[in-house]
Amino acid sequence: MQYRRHRLGKACPQNSGIRFCGRMVTIMTMSMVADEIEALTAIYEDDWCVVDEANRIYCIAITHHNEQDKTKDLKICLQICLPPEYPNAAPPVYQINAPWLKDAERQTVVTTLEQVCSENSGECVLYLLFEQLREYLLDRAQKAEQVDVNSSSHHDSSSLSSDLHSRLAFPSATDCEIPAIKHGEPITDRRSTFQAHLAAPISTAQQVTQVRRMLLENRKIANATHNILAYRIYCEDRGTFLQDCDNDGEAAAGPRLLHLLEILDVQNVMVVVSRWYGGIMLGPDRFKHINNAARNILDEHGYIQKNEGRSKKKGKQKSR
């Protein structure tokens, strides 16, 4: 299927334009991009997601489905930021999100996408990039199937073990009650967006697994560059805390988020902060935004106030 860029119906001066992100963008360029986005929305439907329309940040999930075994589905999420000069003078800025990709494979994908951009300089290339990813997944899946055929006996035994492990590690939704999930207000800085999600009350690690799975059923959250997680559960029978965290690729973010929960002395809560990377590195500011998003949602739903009251009560008891 060949994607064609639509032409404007009316003539428009090339030098007429408006200011976008501090730079002059021609009306012709904006129309080209608008046509491209409209076409992609029609082609990819639910796989295509608008993260921040004002800053032209989008993401797409490209999936190769394995009809025999869904656990072998291959998925790459691509987050795209279109600079003001796109497509005439600059390629799209993108980030690949696929934890299963090894470094060498990731570099192969990056090189391939860069070649597509180079060969189609000045043109709308998003469709070409997406279809290149689809071809890569198809090729990789075919190679994996060939390996499976060559070692079918070993595969059969390991599949049984894998299925048993899956049922033990990931209980069904009926095994535990899933608490309510609330979503905080997004924080945006230099095209990166942060949004916190709160689940409470949490009393078991199984609930953490189920909440995480439920969050990832949301297409926008699943396509986030990172979903940083931390939870803290008070075990009354032992007088201790069951707690853990996950960076999801954002180095050191998980422990920092868990440390915030400890400082605020919150109990029986799970917080996930989604980050959609906008193409500009934020440095240490990203940790500030992650923690602020988490603090805001905890405060909004009364957890900080509750714990401040509990801390004061503890202080009075100690002073007696």
Structure description:
- The protein is α+β, with helices and mostly antiparallel strands and 320 residues long.
- Helix content is 43%, strand content 23%.
- It is built from nine helices and twelve strands.
- The longest helix is centred in the middle third of the chain and has 25 residues, at 126-150.
- It is globular, with a radius of gyration of 23 Å.
- It starts with 16 loop residues before the first strand and ends with a helix.
Share of β-strand residues:
15-25%
CATH homologous superfamily (4th level) name of the largest domain:
Impact, N-terminal domain
How many domains?
Answer: 2
Mean pLDDT across the residues is: 78
CATH topology of the largest domain: Ribosomal Protein S5, domain 2
- Alpha-carbon distance between the termini? 78 Å
How do the helices and strands follow one another from N- to C-terminus? EEHEEEEHHHEEEHHEEHEHH
In short:
This protein has 320 residues and is α+β, with helices and mostly antiparallel strands.
Keyphrases for this structure?
9 helices, 12 strands, 4-stranded antiparallel beta sheet, 320 residues, disordered N terminus, Ribosomal Protein S5, domain 2, disordered C terminus, alpha+beta, 6-stranded antiparallel beta sheet, 43% helix, Ubiquitin Conjugating Enzyme
